Sequence to fold (336 residues):
Amino acid sequence: MTGAPMGLGGTRLIGTGSATPDGILTNADLEKILDTSDEWIQQRTGIKQRRVVDQTKGESTVSICCDALEDAIKNTGVDPDDIDLIICATCTQQMSCPSVACRAAERIGATRAAAFDLAAACSGFVYALNTADSLIRLGRYKTIAVIGGDAMSTVMDYNDRSVSILFGDAAGAAILTQDENPERGSIKQIMGADGRGWECLYLPRKAIDVPECDKDNPIELGMLRMNGREVFKFAVKKFQHVIEQTLSEAGIGIDDVAQLICHQSNLRIIESAREKLGIEKDRVYVNIDRVGNSSAGSIGLCLDELNQAGRIKEGDLILLAAFGGGMTWASSLWRV
Ligand code: ACO
Fold:
Protein backbone atom coordinates (compact mmCIF):
# COMPACT_ATOMS: atom_id res chain seq x y z
CA MET A 1 0.00 0.00 0.00
CA THR A 2 1.17 3.55 -0.57
CA GLY A 3 0.10 7.00 0.66
CA ALA A 4 0.07 8.64 4.07
CA PRO A 5 -1.10 6.51 6.99
CA MET A 6 -4.66 7.27 7.99
CA GLY A 7 -4.62 6.13 11.65
CA LEU A 8 -8.27 5.25 11.51
CA GLY A 9 -8.94 3.61 14.85
CA GLY A 10 -8.88 0.06 16.10
CA THR A 11 -8.64 -3.50 14.88
CA ARG A 12 -11.40 -6.07 14.42
CA LEU A 13 -10.77 -9.79 14.68
CA ILE A 14 -12.78 -11.04 11.69
CA GLY A 15 -12.21 -14.71 12.41
CA THR A 16 -9.84 -17.58 13.01
CA GLY A 17 -8.70 -20.94 11.70
CA SER A 18 -6.36 -23.72 12.71
CA ALA A 19 -4.77 -26.99 11.67
CA THR A 20 -3.44 -30.01 13.49
CA PRO A 21 -1.96 -32.98 11.65
CA ASP A 22 -3.76 -36.36 11.88
CA GLY A 23 -0.77 -38.16 13.42
CA ILE A 24 -0.98 -38.79 17.17
CA LEU A 25 2.02 -39.53 19.40
CA THR A 26 0.85 -40.76 22.79
CA ASN A 27 2.76 -41.12 26.03
CA ALA A 28 2.47 -44.89 25.52
CA ASP A 29 4.25 -44.48 22.15
CA LEU A 30 7.06 -42.55 23.87
CA GLU A 31 7.34 -45.20 26.60
CA LYS A 32 8.37 -47.63 23.83
CA ILE A 33 11.31 -45.52 22.62
CA LEU A 34 12.40 -43.58 25.72
CA ASP A 35 13.15 -44.27 29.38
CA THR A 36 9.98 -42.47 30.54
CA SER A 37 6.44 -43.19 31.69
CA ASP A 38 2.93 -41.93 31.06
CA GLU A 39 2.69 -41.17 34.79
CA TRP A 40 5.87 -39.02 34.83
CA ILE A 41 4.88 -37.08 31.71
CA GLN A 42 1.31 -36.40 32.90
CA GLN A 43 2.42 -35.42 36.38
CA ARG A 44 5.22 -33.07 35.20
CA THR A 45 3.55 -31.59 32.11
CA GLY A 46 -0.17 -32.49 31.89
CA ILE A 47 0.42 -33.91 28.39
CA LYS A 48 -1.27 -37.14 27.28
CA GLN A 49 -0.59 -36.96 23.54
CA ARG A 50 0.73 -34.67 20.81
CA ARG A 51 -0.17 -34.20 17.15
CA VAL A 52 2.69 -34.84 14.71
CA VAL A 53 3.20 -34.30 10.98
CA ASP A 54 3.95 -37.20 8.65
CA GLN A 55 6.90 -35.99 6.58
CA THR A 56 6.55 -38.99 4.22
CA LYS A 57 3.19 -37.51 3.19
CA GLY A 58 4.75 -34.09 2.63
CA GLU A 59 3.39 -32.63 5.88
CA SER A 60 5.50 -29.86 7.40
CA THR A 61 5.42 -26.43 9.01
CA VAL A 62 4.48 -25.04 5.59
CA SER A 63 1.57 -27.44 5.12
CA ILE A 64 0.01 -26.88 8.56
CA CYS A 65 0.44 -23.08 8.36
CA CYS A 66 -1.16 -23.07 4.90
CA ASP A 67 -3.99 -25.32 6.17
CA ALA A 68 -4.64 -22.98 9.13
CA LEU A 69 -4.82 -19.89 6.93
CA GLU A 70 -7.04 -21.69 4.43
CA ASP A 71 -9.33 -22.65 7.31
CA ALA A 72 -9.49 -19.00 8.46
CA ILE A 73 -10.32 -17.90 4.91
CA LYS A 74 -13.10 -20.50 4.75
CA ASN A 75 -14.48 -19.53 8.18
CA THR A 76 -14.49 -15.79 7.48
CA GLY A 77 -15.30 -15.67 3.76
CA VAL A 78 -12.57 -13.03 3.33
CA ASP A 79 -11.45 -12.64 -0.29
CA PRO A 80 -7.68 -13.45 -0.42
CA ASP A 81 -7.24 -10.45 -2.72
CA ASP A 82 -8.40 -8.19 0.13
CA ILE A 83 -5.48 -9.29 2.33
CA ASP A 84 -2.70 -6.67 2.39
CA LEU A 85 -0.16 -8.53 4.52
CA ILE A 86 0.49 -12.05 5.84
CA ILE A 87 2.72 -12.48 8.91
CA CYS A 88 3.72 -16.01 9.90
CA ALA A 89 5.32 -16.68 13.29
CA THR A 90 7.41 -19.84 13.27
CA CYS A 91 10.79 -21.20 14.33
CA THR A 92 10.69 -24.42 12.31
CA GLN A 93 10.78 -23.30 8.67
CA GLN A 94 12.47 -26.01 6.67
CA MET A 95 13.80 -23.24 4.39
CA SER A 96 14.65 -19.73 5.51
CA CYS A 97 13.90 -18.59 1.96
CA PRO A 98 11.17 -18.36 0.82
CA SER A 99 9.23 -17.51 3.96
CA VAL A 100 6.34 -19.69 5.13
CA ALA A 101 4.16 -16.57 4.77
CA CYS A 102 4.93 -16.45 1.01
CA ARG A 103 3.98 -20.13 0.67
CA ALA A 104 0.72 -19.44 2.51
CA ALA A 105 0.02 -16.51 0.20
CA GLU A 106 0.49 -18.83 -2.77
CA ARG A 107 -1.82 -21.47 -1.25
CA ILE A 108 -4.75 -19.09 -0.72
CA GLY A 109 -4.13 -17.16 -3.95
CA ALA A 110 -3.35 -13.84 -2.22
CA THR A 111 -1.56 -12.05 -5.03
CA ARG A 112 -1.68 -8.53 -3.55
CA ALA A 113 -0.38 -9.28 -0.04
CA ALA A 114 3.08 -8.59 1.32
CA ALA A 115 4.37 -11.54 3.35
CA PHE A 116 7.07 -12.22 5.93
CA ASP A 117 7.99 -14.59 8.76
CA LEU A 118 8.63 -13.54 12.33
CA ALA A 119 10.78 -15.49 14.81
CA ALA A 120 9.98 -15.23 18.51
CA ALA A 121 9.65 -18.97 19.30
CA CYS A 122 6.61 -19.72 21.47
CA SER A 123 5.83 -15.98 21.84
CA GLY A 124 5.60 -15.69 18.05
CA PHE A 125 1.83 -15.65 17.56
CA VAL A 126 1.33 -12.89 20.14
CA TYR A 127 4.27 -10.92 18.69
CA ALA A 128 2.69 -11.25 15.23
CA LEU A 129 -0.77 -10.28 16.45
CA ASN A 130 0.59 -7.19 18.22
CA THR A 131 2.62 -6.20 15.15
CA ALA A 132 -0.41 -6.60 12.89
CA ASP A 133 -2.63 -4.59 15.23
CA SER A 134 -0.08 -1.75 15.32
CA LEU A 135 0.29 -1.68 11.53
CA ILE A 136 -3.49 -1.57 11.12
CA ARG A 137 -3.83 1.22 13.71
CA LEU A 138 -1.22 3.22 11.78
CA GLY A 139 -3.46 2.95 8.74
CA ARG A 140 -0.74 1.50 6.51
CA TYR A 141 -2.50 -1.85 6.10
CA LYS A 142 -6.22 -2.56 6.22
CA THR A 143 -6.48 -6.35 6.41
CA ILE A 144 -3.76 -8.62 7.80
CA ALA A 145 -3.63 -12.40 8.17
CA VAL A 146 -1.58 -13.66 11.12
CA ILE A 147 -0.40 -17.26 11.31
CA GLY A 148 1.51 -19.02 14.09
CA GLY A 149 2.70 -22.54 13.44
CA ASP A 150 5.44 -25.00 14.21
CA ALA A 151 6.13 -28.61 13.32
CA MET A 152 8.19 -29.18 16.44
CA SER A 153 8.33 -32.94 15.86
CA THR A 154 10.67 -32.24 12.91
CA VAL A 155 13.26 -30.75 15.30
CA MET A 156 12.89 -33.27 18.13
CA ASP A 157 15.63 -35.67 19.12
CA TYR A 158 13.52 -38.66 20.17
CA ASN A 159 16.51 -40.00 22.11
CA ASP A 160 16.31 -37.01 24.45
CA ARG A 161 13.53 -37.58 26.99
CA SER A 162 13.97 -34.18 28.62
CA VAL A 163 12.73 -32.31 25.51
CA SER A 164 10.84 -34.63 23.16
CA ILE A 165 8.02 -35.42 25.59
CA LEU A 166 6.84 -31.78 25.51
CA PHE A 167 6.37 -30.78 21.91
CA GLY A 168 3.81 -31.32 19.14
CA ASP A 169 2.74 -29.75 15.85
CA ALA A 170 -0.07 -27.25 15.19
CA ALA A 171 -0.89 -23.95 13.53
CA GLY A 172 -3.45 -21.23 14.18
CA ALA A 173 -4.48 -18.22 12.10
CA ALA A 174 -6.42 -15.01 12.61
CA ILE A 175 -7.64 -12.41 10.14
CA LEU A 176 -7.71 -8.80 11.32
CA THR A 177 -9.06 -5.66 9.74
CA GLN A 178 -9.37 -1.94 10.39
CA ASP A 179 -12.24 -0.88 12.67
CA GLU A 180 -13.42 2.63 13.39
CA ASN A 181 -13.57 2.00 17.15
CA PRO A 182 -10.07 2.53 18.68
CA GLU A 183 -11.16 0.53 21.73
CA ARG A 184 -11.31 -2.62 19.60
CA GLY A 185 -8.28 -4.84 19.03
CA SER A 186 -5.14 -4.89 21.15
CA ILE A 187 -5.85 -2.22 23.75
CA LYS A 188 -2.75 -3.05 25.81
CA GLN A 189 0.26 -5.08 24.87
CA ILE A 190 3.68 -6.00 26.16
CA MET A 191 6.56 -7.50 24.20
CA GLY A 192 9.95 -8.19 25.69
CA ALA A 193 13.14 -10.15 25.24
CA ASP A 194 16.25 -11.00 27.23
CA GLY A 195 18.91 -12.37 24.91
CA ARG A 196 21.11 -13.32 27.85
CA GLY A 197 18.97 -16.45 28.21
CA TRP A 198 19.33 -17.69 24.62
CA GLU A 199 21.42 -20.73 25.56
CA CYS A 200 18.49 -22.17 27.55
CA LEU A 201 16.57 -22.93 24.37
CA TYR A 202 18.16 -23.05 20.94
CA LEU A 203 17.98 -24.87 17.64
CA PRO A 204 21.52 -25.29 16.23
CA ARG A 205 21.73 -25.74 12.47
CA LYS A 206 25.55 -25.83 12.30
CA ALA A 207 28.40 -26.64 14.71
CA ILE A 208 29.19 -22.92 14.97
CA ASP A 209 25.76 -22.37 16.59
CA VAL A 210 26.53 -24.49 19.66
CA PRO A 211 27.33 -22.29 22.70
CA GLU A 212 30.37 -22.74 24.89
CA CYS A 213 28.32 -24.32 27.71
CA ASP A 214 27.35 -27.23 25.40
CA LYS A 215 30.66 -27.66 23.55
CA ASP A 216 31.44 -30.91 25.40
CA ASN A 217 27.91 -32.29 25.30
CA PRO A 218 26.57 -34.58 22.57
CA ILE A 219 24.53 -32.12 20.47
CA GLU A 220 22.36 -33.21 17.54
CA LEU A 221 22.41 -30.49 14.89
CA GLY A 222 18.92 -29.56 13.68
CA MET A 223 17.35 -30.64 16.99
CA LEU A 224 15.96 -28.38 19.72
CA ARG A 225 18.14 -28.13 22.79
CA MET A 226 16.51 -27.03 26.06
CA ASN A 227 17.56 -26.52 29.66
CA GLY A 228 14.11 -27.40 31.01
CA ARG A 229 14.74 -26.41 34.63
CA GLU A 230 16.01 -22.93 33.71
CA VAL A 231 13.15 -22.35 31.24
CA PHE A 232 10.67 -23.53 33.88
CA LYS A 233 12.01 -21.09 36.52
CA PHE A 234 12.01 -18.22 34.02
CA ALA A 235 8.52 -19.08 32.78
CA VAL A 236 6.82 -19.31 36.17
CA LYS A 237 8.13 -15.87 37.16
CA LYS A 238 7.80 -14.08 33.83
CA PHE A 239 4.38 -15.43 32.89
CA GLN A 240 2.80 -14.24 36.10
CA HIS A 241 4.56 -10.88 35.87
CA VAL A 242 3.57 -10.15 32.25
CA ILE A 243 -0.10 -10.92 32.96
CA GLU A 244 -0.19 -8.74 36.09
CA GLN A 245 1.66 -5.87 34.37
CA THR A 246 -0.76 -5.94 31.41
CA LEU A 247 -3.80 -5.84 33.69
CA SER A 248 -2.31 -3.10 35.85
CA GLU A 249 -1.35 -0.89 32.86
CA ALA A 250 -4.85 -1.36 31.44
CA GLY A 251 -6.36 -0.45 34.82
CA ILE A 252 -8.48 -3.60 35.00
CA GLY A 253 -8.64 -6.75 37.11
CA ILE A 254 -8.54 -10.38 36.07
CA ASP A 255 -12.31 -10.58 36.65
CA ASP A 256 -12.82 -8.28 33.64
CA VAL A 257 -11.16 -10.84 31.37
CA ALA A 258 -13.51 -13.33 29.69
CA GLN A 259 -10.73 -15.74 28.69
CA LEU A 260 -7.05 -15.97 29.58
CA ILE A 261 -5.32 -17.73 26.70
CA CYS A 262 -1.87 -18.89 27.76
CA HIS A 263 0.86 -20.48 25.70
CA GLN A 264 0.47 -24.21 26.30
CA SER A 265 3.99 -24.81 27.60
CA ASN A 266 3.41 -27.06 30.57
CA LEU A 267 0.20 -27.47 32.59
CA ARG A 268 2.11 -26.77 35.82
CA ILE A 269 3.19 -23.35 34.51
CA ILE A 270 -0.37 -22.48 33.47
CA GLU A 271 -1.80 -23.75 36.77
CA SER A 272 0.76 -21.80 38.78
CA ALA A 273 -0.29 -18.56 37.04
CA ARG A 274 -3.99 -19.43 37.35
CA GLU A 275 -3.78 -20.08 41.07
CA LYS A 276 -1.76 -16.93 41.82
CA LEU A 277 -4.19 -14.82 39.79
CA GLY A 278 -7.19 -16.44 41.51
CA ILE A 279 -9.02 -17.12 38.25
CA GLU A 280 -11.32 -20.10 37.85
CA LYS A 281 -10.52 -22.98 35.48
CA ASP A 282 -13.24 -22.31 32.89
CA ARG A 283 -11.68 -18.93 32.03
CA VAL A 284 -8.21 -20.38 31.38
CA TYR A 285 -8.21 -22.48 28.24
CA VAL A 286 -6.18 -25.69 28.26
CA ASN A 287 -5.59 -28.12 25.39
CA ILE A 288 -2.01 -29.17 26.14
CA ASP A 289 -3.27 -32.61 27.22
CA ARG A 290 -4.46 -33.28 23.61
CA VAL A 291 -1.85 -31.45 21.52
CA GLY A 292 1.29 -30.87 23.60
CA ASN A 293 3.36 -27.69 23.31
CA SER A 294 3.16 -26.55 19.67
CA SER A 295 5.34 -23.44 20.14
CA ALA A 296 4.08 -20.60 17.89
CA GLY A 297 1.04 -22.72 16.98
CA SER A 298 -0.29 -22.94 20.51
CA ILE A 299 -2.07 -19.63 21.14
CA GLY A 300 -3.63 -19.42 17.66
CA LEU A 301 -4.96 -22.95 18.02
CA CYS A 302 -6.47 -22.15 21.46
CA LEU A 303 -8.02 -18.97 20.06
CA ASP A 304 -9.61 -20.85 17.17
CA GLU A 305 -10.89 -23.72 19.35
CA LEU A 306 -12.52 -21.21 21.72
CA ASN A 307 -13.93 -19.22 18.81
CA GLN A 308 -15.36 -22.27 17.03
CA ALA A 309 -16.95 -23.35 20.34
CA GLY A 310 -18.72 -19.96 20.53
CA ARG A 311 -16.84 -19.04 23.71
CA ILE A 312 -15.50 -15.73 22.39
CA LYS A 313 -18.18 -13.10 21.92
CA GLU A 314 -18.16 -9.63 20.44
CA GLY A 315 -17.16 -7.11 23.11
CA ASP A 316 -15.29 -9.69 25.22
CA LEU A 317 -11.91 -8.85 26.67
CA ILE A 318 -9.45 -11.67 26.13
CA LEU A 319 -5.87 -11.77 27.37
CA LEU A 320 -3.22 -13.68 25.45
CA ALA A 321 0.12 -14.39 27.14
CA ALA A 322 3.20 -16.28 26.03
CA PHE A 323 6.89 -16.80 26.67
CA GLY A 324 9.49 -18.66 24.67
CA GLY A 325 13.00 -19.07 23.39
CA GLY A 326 15.13 -16.00 23.03
CA MET A 327 14.12 -15.58 25.81
CA THR A 328 11.00 -13.72 24.73
CA TRP A 329 7.63 -12.87 26.25
CA ALA A 330 4.48 -11.13 25.07
CA SER A 331 0.92 -10.29 26.04
CA SER A 332 -2.03 -8.83 24.20
CA LEU A 333 -5.17 -7.61 25.92
CA TRP A 334 -7.72 -7.76 23.15
CA ARG A 335 -11.24 -6.31 22.89
CA VAL A 336 -13.01 -8.59 20.41
N1 ACO B 1 10.79 -39.17 31.94
C1 ACO B 1 11.26 -39.57 33.13
N2 ACO B 1 12.17 -38.89 33.83
C2 ACO B 1 12.64 -37.76 33.30
C3 ACO B 1 12.20 -37.26 32.06
C4 ACO B 1 11.24 -38.01 31.37
N3 ACO B 1 10.75 -37.65 30.17
N4 ACO B 1 12.82 -36.10 31.79
C5 ACO B 1 13.63 -35.86 32.85
N5 ACO B 1 13.51 -36.87 33.75
C6 ACO B 1 14.20 -36.99 35.04
C7 ACO B 1 15.49 -36.21 35.11
O1 ACO B 1 16.58 -36.98 34.61
C8 ACO B 1 15.60 -35.94 36.58
O2 ACO B 1 16.11 -37.08 37.21
P1 ACO B 1 17.14 -36.94 38.45
O3 ACO B 1 16.35 -36.21 39.52
O4 ACO B 1 17.47 -38.34 38.78
O5 ACO B 1 18.28 -36.11 37.94
C9 ACO B 1 14.15 -35.78 37.05
O6 ACO B 1 13.35 -36.43 36.05
C10 ACO B 1 13.72 -34.35 37.18
O7 ACO B 1 14.14 -33.63 36.01
P2 ACO B 1 13.80 -32.11 35.79
O8 ACO B 1 14.42 -31.68 34.50
O9 ACO B 1 14.13 -31.35 37.04
O10 ACO B 1 12.22 -32.21 35.64
P3 ACO B 1 11.17 -31.05 35.67
O11 ACO B 1 10.22 -31.27 36.75
O12 ACO B 1 11.85 -29.70 35.57
O13 ACO B 1 10.38 -31.31 34.31
C11 ACO B 1 10.26 -30.33 32.12
C12 ACO B 1 11.06 -31.24 33.06
C13 ACO B 1 8.89 -30.96 31.93
C14 ACO B 1 10.99 -30.25 30.79
C15 ACO B 1 10.13 -28.92 32.79
O14 ACO B 1 11.40 -28.49 33.20
C16 ACO B 1 9.54 -27.90 31.85
O15 ACO B 1 8.40 -27.99 31.46
N6 ACO B 1 10.30 -26.83 31.57
C17 ACO B 1 9.76 -25.73 30.76
C18 ACO B 1 9.87 -26.07 29.32
C19 ACO B 1 9.06 -25.09 28.51
O16 ACO B 1 8.05 -24.58 28.93
N7 ACO B 1 9.51 -24.80 27.32
C20 ACO B 1 8.69 -23.85 26.60
C21 ACO B 1 9.40 -22.93 25.84
S1 ACO B 1 9.23 -23.62 24.30
C22 ACO B 1 9.77 -22.59 23.04
O17 ACO B 1 9.93 -21.40 23.16
C23 ACO B 1 10.04 -23.30 21.73
User: Anything to note?
Assistant: The two ends are 26 Å apart (CA to CA).
